[in-house]
Design a protein that fits this description.
The complex is a heterodimer. Chain A is α+β, with helices and mostly antiparallel strands. Chain A contains six helices and four strands; from the N terminus they run αββαααβααβ. Chain B is α+β, with helices and mostly antiparallel strands. Chain B is built from three helices and seven strands; from the N terminus they run H-E-E-H-E-E-E-H-E-E. In chain B, strand 4 and strand 5 form a beta hairpin. The longest helix of chain B has 21 residues, at about 1-20. Chain B is globular and about 70 Å long. The chains are: A alpha+beta, B alpha+beta. The interface of A and B includes residues 128, 135, 138 and 139 of A.
Chain lengths: ~150, ~130
Protein backbone atom coordinates (compact mmCIF):
# COMPACT_ATOMS: atom_id res chain seq x y z
CA UNK A 1 0.00 0.00 0.00
CA UNK A 2 2.80 2.33 0.97
CA UNK A 3 4.63 1.42 -2.24
CA UNK A 4 1.57 2.24 -4.34
CA UNK A 5 1.24 5.63 -2.67
CA UNK A 6 4.91 6.35 -3.31
CA UNK A 7 4.53 5.45 -7.01
CA UNK A 8 1.41 7.58 -7.34
CA UNK A 9 3.16 10.47 -5.63
CA UNK A 10 6.15 10.13 -7.93
CA UNK A 11 3.96 10.12 -11.04
CA UNK A 12 2.14 13.19 -9.81
CA UNK A 13 5.45 14.99 -9.30
CA UNK A 14 6.63 14.04 -12.82
CA UNK A 15 3.38 15.32 -14.31
CA UNK A 16 3.67 18.57 -12.38
CA UNK A 17 7.26 18.96 -13.54
CA UNK A 18 6.31 18.44 -17.20
CA UNK A 19 3.46 20.91 -16.91
CA UNK A 20 5.70 23.49 -15.26
CA UNK A 21 8.34 23.00 -17.94
CA UNK A 22 5.79 23.52 -20.71
CA UNK A 23 4.42 26.68 -19.13
CA UNK A 24 7.92 28.05 -18.58
CA UNK A 25 8.82 27.90 -22.28
CA UNK A 26 9.57 31.21 -24.00
CA UNK A 27 7.14 30.80 -26.87
CA UNK A 28 4.28 28.41 -27.14
CA UNK A 29 2.26 27.75 -30.27
CA UNK A 30 -1.29 28.75 -29.63
CA UNK A 31 -4.12 27.47 -31.73
CA UNK A 32 -6.42 30.27 -32.75
CA UNK A 33 -9.77 29.28 -34.12
CA UNK A 34 -11.61 31.78 -36.25
CA UNK A 35 -14.82 31.54 -38.19
CA UNK A 36 -13.00 31.67 -41.51
CA UNK A 37 -10.20 29.25 -40.88
CA UNK A 38 -8.21 27.39 -38.31
CA UNK A 39 -4.49 28.10 -38.25
CA UNK A 40 -1.56 27.87 -35.93
CA UNK A 41 -0.33 31.27 -34.78
CA UNK A 42 2.86 31.72 -32.81
CA UNK A 43 2.24 34.22 -30.02
CA UNK A 44 5.05 35.21 -27.69
CA UNK A 45 3.98 34.46 -24.15
CA UNK A 46 7.12 35.77 -22.47
CA UNK A 47 9.72 38.39 -23.37
CA UNK A 48 12.73 36.99 -25.21
CA UNK A 49 15.52 36.42 -22.75
CA UNK A 50 18.83 34.59 -22.84
CA UNK A 51 19.08 31.21 -21.20
CA UNK A 52 19.05 31.25 -17.43
CA UNK A 53 22.45 31.91 -15.92
CA UNK A 54 23.92 33.76 -18.96
CA UNK A 55 23.48 37.49 -19.28
CA UNK A 56 23.15 39.32 -22.58
CA UNK A 57 26.56 40.90 -22.08
CA UNK A 58 28.15 37.49 -21.56
CA UNK A 59 26.56 36.23 -24.79
CA UNK A 60 28.01 39.25 -26.63
CA UNK A 61 31.46 38.51 -25.20
CA UNK A 62 31.27 34.89 -26.31
CA UNK A 63 30.26 35.89 -29.85
CA UNK A 64 33.06 38.49 -30.02
CA UNK A 65 35.60 35.93 -28.86
CA UNK A 66 34.45 33.37 -31.44
CA UNK A 67 34.52 35.91 -34.26
CA UNK A 68 37.97 37.17 -33.37
CA UNK A 69 39.30 33.59 -33.27
CA UNK A 70 38.26 32.94 -36.89
CA UNK A 71 41.00 33.19 -39.52
CA UNK A 72 40.65 36.08 -41.95
CA UNK A 73 39.04 35.06 -45.22
CA UNK A 74 40.97 36.16 -48.30
CA UNK A 75 39.44 39.03 -50.24
CA UNK A 76 37.56 38.02 -53.36
CA UNK A 77 39.97 39.90 -55.58
CA UNK A 78 42.93 37.99 -54.12
CA UNK A 79 41.32 34.62 -54.81
CA UNK A 80 40.88 35.26 -58.53
CA UNK A 81 43.97 34.64 -60.61
CA UNK A 82 44.66 36.99 -63.52
CA UNK A 83 44.17 34.19 -66.06
CA UNK A 84 40.74 33.39 -64.62
CA UNK A 85 39.77 37.04 -64.68
CA UNK A 86 40.95 37.39 -68.27
CA UNK A 87 38.95 34.31 -69.28
CA UNK A 88 35.79 35.77 -67.79
CA UNK A 89 36.30 39.08 -69.57
CA UNK A 90 36.89 37.25 -72.87
CA UNK A 91 33.82 35.05 -72.38
CA UNK A 92 31.61 38.05 -71.66
CA UNK A 93 32.98 39.83 -74.73
CA UNK A 94 32.34 36.75 -76.86
CA UNK A 95 28.73 36.59 -75.72
CA UNK A 96 28.28 40.24 -76.61
CA UNK A 97 29.62 39.54 -80.09
CA UNK A 98 27.34 36.52 -80.47
CA UNK A 99 24.32 38.57 -79.44
CA UNK A 100 25.28 41.13 -82.10
CA UNK A 101 25.92 38.52 -84.80
CA UNK A 102 22.84 36.48 -83.86
CA UNK A 103 24.47 33.09 -84.30
CA UNK A 104 26.32 30.64 -82.05
CA UNK A 105 28.84 28.59 -84.00
CA UNK A 106 31.24 25.72 -83.31
CA UNK A 107 34.07 28.23 -83.22
CA UNK A 108 32.27 30.20 -80.53
CA UNK A 109 31.59 27.02 -78.61
CA UNK A 110 35.24 25.96 -78.61
CA UNK A 111 36.43 29.41 -77.54
CA UNK A 112 33.79 29.61 -74.83
CA UNK A 113 34.71 26.18 -73.50
CA UNK A 114 38.30 27.33 -73.17
CA UNK A 115 37.20 30.37 -71.20
CA UNK A 116 34.97 28.23 -68.99
CA UNK A 117 37.84 25.90 -68.20
CA UNK A 118 39.94 28.82 -66.97
CA UNK A 119 37.18 30.60 -65.06
CA UNK A 120 36.48 30.23 -61.35
CA UNK A 121 33.65 27.85 -60.37
CA UNK A 122 31.19 30.64 -59.56
CA UNK A 123 32.00 32.59 -62.74
CA UNK A 124 31.65 29.39 -64.75
CA UNK A 125 28.06 29.01 -63.57
CA UNK A 126 27.31 32.65 -64.30
CA UNK A 127 28.79 32.43 -67.81
CA UNK A 128 26.79 29.31 -68.67
CA UNK A 129 23.59 31.08 -67.60
CA UNK A 130 24.64 34.08 -69.69
CA UNK A 131 25.05 31.82 -72.73
CA UNK A 132 21.60 30.35 -72.14
CA UNK A 133 20.19 33.85 -71.94
CA UNK A 134 21.93 34.83 -75.19
CA UNK A 135 20.39 31.84 -76.97
CA UNK A 136 16.97 32.48 -75.46
CA UNK A 137 17.13 36.07 -76.66
CA UNK A 138 17.47 34.97 -80.26
CA UNK A 139 21.00 33.89 -81.16
CA UNK A 140 20.60 30.94 -83.51
CA UNK A 141 22.19 27.67 -82.50
CA UNK A 142 24.35 26.70 -85.48
CA UNK A 143 26.78 24.23 -83.96
CA UNK A 144 27.27 20.91 -85.72
CA UNK A 145 27.37 19.19 -82.36
CA UNK A 146 26.22 20.10 -78.87
CA UNK A 147 25.70 23.74 -78.00
CA UNK A 148 28.48 23.76 -75.43
CA UNK B 1 4.09 -27.93 -103.80
CA UNK B 2 0.85 -27.58 -101.91
CA UNK B 3 2.62 -28.40 -98.67
CA UNK B 4 5.27 -25.79 -99.44
CA UNK B 5 2.62 -23.14 -100.10
CA UNK B 6 0.76 -23.97 -96.93
CA UNK B 7 3.97 -23.84 -94.93
CA UNK B 8 4.86 -20.47 -96.39
CA UNK B 9 1.44 -19.10 -95.59
CA UNK B 10 1.68 -20.43 -92.06
CA UNK B 11 5.07 -18.79 -91.57
CA UNK B 12 3.80 -15.45 -92.88
CA UNK B 13 0.73 -15.65 -90.65
CA UNK B 14 2.82 -16.49 -87.60
CA UNK B 15 5.17 -13.63 -88.32
CA UNK B 16 2.27 -11.21 -88.66
CA UNK B 17 0.69 -12.39 -85.46
CA UNK B 18 3.99 -12.31 -83.63
CA UNK B 19 4.71 -8.75 -84.67
CA UNK B 20 1.24 -7.69 -83.56
CA UNK B 21 1.54 -9.49 -80.25
CA UNK B 22 4.99 -8.03 -79.50
CA UNK B 23 4.08 -4.40 -80.24
CA UNK B 24 3.72 -2.43 -77.03
CA UNK B 25 2.24 0.99 -76.50
CA UNK B 26 4.10 3.72 -78.33
CA UNK B 27 3.97 7.46 -77.92
CA UNK B 28 5.32 10.04 -80.32
CA UNK B 29 5.73 13.68 -79.42
CA UNK B 30 4.16 15.98 -81.96
CA UNK B 31 5.93 18.25 -82.51
CA UNK B 32 9.07 16.37 -81.48
CA UNK B 33 10.48 19.49 -79.83
CA UNK B 34 8.39 22.19 -78.24
CA UNK B 35 9.92 25.53 -77.23
CA UNK B 36 8.24 28.29 -75.27
CA UNK B 37 9.62 31.48 -73.72
CA UNK B 38 10.28 29.63 -70.47
CA UNK B 39 10.65 25.96 -71.36
CA UNK B 40 11.90 23.37 -73.78
CA UNK B 41 10.60 19.83 -74.10
CA UNK B 42 10.75 16.83 -76.35
CA UNK B 43 11.61 13.20 -76.85
CA UNK B 44 15.17 12.61 -77.94
CA UNK B 45 14.27 9.81 -80.35
CA UNK B 46 11.49 11.81 -81.99
CA UNK B 47 13.72 14.84 -82.38
CA UNK B 48 16.38 12.76 -84.06
CA UNK B 49 13.84 11.04 -86.31
CA UNK B 50 12.21 14.33 -87.25
CA UNK B 51 11.75 14.97 -90.98
CA UNK B 52 13.63 18.26 -90.76
CA UNK B 53 17.24 18.58 -89.74
CA UNK B 54 16.57 21.45 -87.36
CA UNK B 55 14.96 20.06 -84.23
CA UNK B 56 17.22 19.00 -81.42
CA UNK B 57 17.08 18.75 -77.66
CA UNK B 58 19.34 17.57 -74.88
CA UNK B 59 21.32 18.38 -71.79
CA UNK B 60 25.00 18.11 -71.03
CA UNK B 61 26.66 17.73 -67.68
CA UNK B 62 30.16 18.91 -66.85
CA UNK B 63 32.26 18.21 -63.82
CA UNK B 64 35.35 20.20 -62.87
CA UNK B 65 37.95 19.33 -60.27
CA UNK B 66 37.79 22.04 -57.64
CA UNK B 67 34.08 22.64 -58.10
CA UNK B 68 31.71 21.54 -55.41
CA UNK B 69 28.91 20.89 -57.87
CA UNK B 70 28.46 19.80 -61.47
CA UNK B 71 27.22 22.01 -64.28
CA UNK B 72 24.26 21.22 -66.47
CA UNK B 73 23.30 22.99 -69.68
CA UNK B 74 20.08 22.10 -71.52
CA UNK B 75 19.01 23.34 -74.91
CA UNK B 76 16.26 22.76 -77.42
CA UNK B 77 15.58 24.02 -80.93
CA UNK B 78 12.17 23.66 -82.51
CA UNK B 79 11.32 23.36 -86.20
CA UNK B 80 11.18 27.15 -86.49
CA UNK B 81 14.74 27.58 -85.16
CA UNK B 82 13.43 28.91 -81.87
CA UNK B 83 15.84 28.25 -79.01
CA UNK B 84 15.35 27.44 -75.37
CA UNK B 85 18.36 27.00 -73.11
CA UNK B 86 19.24 27.05 -69.44
CA UNK B 87 22.04 26.14 -67.11
CA UNK B 88 22.26 25.01 -63.52
CA UNK B 89 24.64 24.03 -60.78
CA UNK B 90 21.80 22.87 -58.55
CA UNK B 91 22.62 19.31 -57.42
CA UNK B 92 19.02 18.20 -57.91
CA UNK B 93 18.98 19.37 -61.53
CA UNK B 94 22.47 18.06 -62.26
CA UNK B 95 21.39 14.68 -60.92
CA UNK B 96 18.24 14.71 -63.05
CA UNK B 97 20.32 15.48 -66.15
CA UNK B 98 22.47 12.45 -65.41
CA UNK B 99 19.38 10.26 -65.78
CA UNK B 100 18.86 11.21 -69.43
CA UNK B 101 19.19 8.28 -71.81
CA UNK B 102 18.69 7.63 -75.54
CA UNK B 103 14.93 7.09 -75.12
CA UNK B 104 14.24 9.89 -72.67
CA UNK B 105 11.59 12.54 -72.73
CA UNK B 106 12.86 15.75 -71.17
CA UNK B 107 11.31 19.03 -70.14
CA UNK B 108 13.27 21.92 -68.71
CA UNK B 109 11.96 25.20 -67.43
CA UNK B 110 13.94 28.36 -66.80
CA UNK B 111 13.74 31.89 -65.52
CA UNK B 112 14.71 35.17 -67.18
CA UNK B 113 18.34 34.82 -66.04
CA UNK B 114 18.79 31.60 -68.04
CA UNK B 115 18.87 29.45 -64.92
CA UNK B 116 17.02 26.14 -64.99
CA UNK B 117 14.21 26.03 -62.46
CA UNK B 118 13.30 22.40 -63.12
CA UNK B 119 14.27 19.44 -65.25
CA UNK B 120 11.95 16.49 -65.80
CA UNK B 121 13.47 13.32 -67.21
CA UNK B 122 11.20 10.44 -68.12
CA UNK B 123 12.35 7.04 -69.29
CA UNK B 124 9.42 4.96 -70.47
CA UNK B 125 9.07 2.15 -72.99
CA UNK B 126 6.54 4.12 -75.04
CA UNK B 127 9.12 6.75 -75.96
CA UNK B 128 10.90 6.47 -79.25
CA UNK B 129 14.48 5.30 -78.91
CA UNK B 130 17.12 7.05 -80.94
CA UNK B 131 18.08 5.27 -84.13
CA UNK B 132 20.85 6.19 -86.54
Amino acid sequence: MTVSRSIAGGLALVALGLAAGYLARGEAPVRVETRETARLVRIPTAPAAPAAGVSAEEVRDIVRAELSARPEAPAASEAVEPAAHEAVVSADRLLEEVAGRGVWTDEDRLAFRGHLDAATPSERGRLMAALARTLNEGARLATAGPPL
Amino acid sequence: MTILKKSSLAIVACAALASTALAGYKFHANPPVLVTSSSGSGILGDARASANNIERIGCLTYGYAGSTSGYTFCSAVDAGYKNAACSSTNPSIVQAASAIGPASSITFRFDASGTCTSLDVQNFSEYTPMVP
